[in-house]
């Protein structure tokens, strides 16, 4: 039985990270010319999986794949396993395990994910992560690791250093120690002397930490281990090949001309050095890096053309005619409005908006590579290797995500099939999700929706658009 850790004592808040989802990793790798395992039939390992709140929703949405999560802390693993049992999931397993003792016979994984791990473990554990990836990543596998990055991490380091000094008398990490540290930082900012830049740094960090929960500060800022890295240093240490950052926008948006000129001026010729200089220029604080094996050939020139191999999705809804013959589209999530006259874009967005949150294969849309890349770069269209949400079949009674049924039976938040956290604020909607188990009669659903505008169909439409229905 492993020793109790601070993650057993104070729960780390649940989180699901789209940027670490195998479909995102597969999409980026596909754009770079890799022939990856289909996410609907693959093996995924998550290292430092905590309570499984990142891994379990992946398993719900990809029932043909197999998921394995390990974490040193037994208490969050036990909570995660209770959710898995309650949701009746047979394709995901969590184990309380020190990565140092990772079983050599665990087999190969097509995707290996370590979110929020490298910066919060000792050096030897981080190095073990690279060994585990080296031994267990499939030849065409894709890995993901996030970490605190320089140069902005210098500010976080400075603040952590002062807060832990001030709270040293409180000993080991605790939420009380975090509260003392944060209060000290605020007080320091109020009376600090010296150059203005120092006061600005303190105000900047104080504001950032002011928005954080105390349990998060006690782990992320004032936990026992805290390391930051230069991007180039992590790539070299990993022994892996850099694929991209886990952002489609970043991959498809053309680099700002001024930044390109600056990086050229610094004499950076290879990709790693260029990315490193960009971190210096853009004051980066955190990286979410996607890797593959060194020997895998990547083609960075054909990225845009490979959108043809993917699915597209967009939450933009047709909002009627705009000015000068344009068509207006409203983002159903942010409320933002765009207008366009481009006939292919109008056709594509109308089609995608009508089936959101499901996706449409590029082959079924007008062949408009460049406009699509621009829409992705603007964050208006998503690319996927898998629809993630099955198309809605009208007239058939849908089933809600088993995870949503478990989580919404006692809370208001769950992770949807798009791997995003959603909040359902009305008891009626949550009750309806719980009833959508494939066994409830139409009458029970009608009773649950009595008095709600739109009735059963209206509620089902809303739940489908929230990404909570399995079709
Ligand atoms: C900052 S938390 C991140 C949790 C989760 N991945 C997230 O991002 O929400 C770091 C996690 O790494 C786990 N961890 C630390 N050392 C470990 C080790 N030697 N083996 C496995 N897990 C470890 C901790 O228990 C903790 O759950």
N/C terminus separation: 42 Å
Portion in helices = 40-55%
Strand content: 15-25%
| Unreliably modeled segments | none
Q: Helices and strands: which structural class?
A: alpha/beta
The gyration radius over C-alpha positions equals 24 Å
Query: What hetero molecules are in the model?
Result: S-adenosylmethionine
Main sheet properties: 8 strands, mixed
Task: Tell me the number of structural domains.
Answer: 4
User: Count of DSSP E strands?
Assistant: 16
Average per-residue pLDDT, rounded, comes to: 95
CATH topology of the largest domain: Rossmann fold
- Reported CATH architecture of the largest domain: 3-Layer(aba) Sandwich
Shape: globular
Would you kindly provide a written description of the structure presented here, covering whatever features stand out?
The chain has helices at 6-9, 22-31, 55-61, 74-87, 123-136, 153-166, 175-191, 196-210, 214-221, 231-238, 248-252, 257-265, 271-282, 343-355, 369-377, 402-410, 427-435, 442-448, 455-465, and strands at 43-47, 66-71, 92-96, 109-114, 137-149, 228-229, 241-245, 286-292, 311-313, 316-321, 327-331, 337-340, 360-361, 382-384, 413-415, 421-423. It is α/β, with parallel strands linked by helices and 471 residues long. The chain folds into four domains: 6-150 and 230-292, 3-Layer(aba) Sandwich (Rossmann fold); 154-221, no CATH class; 308-384; 402-465, no CATH class. Strands 1, 2, 3, 4, 5, 6, 7 and 8 form an eight-stranded mixed sheet that branches. The protein has a three-stranded antiparallel sheet with strand order 13-9-14. The chain has a three-stranded antiparallel sheet with strand order 10-11-12, covered by helices on one side. α7 (175-191) crosses α9 (214-221) and α16 packs across α17 (427-435). The structure holds S-adenosylmethionine. S-adenosylmethionine (SAM) binds at residues 5, 7, 12, 15, 48, 50, 70-73, 98-100, 115-117, 120-121, 125, 219.
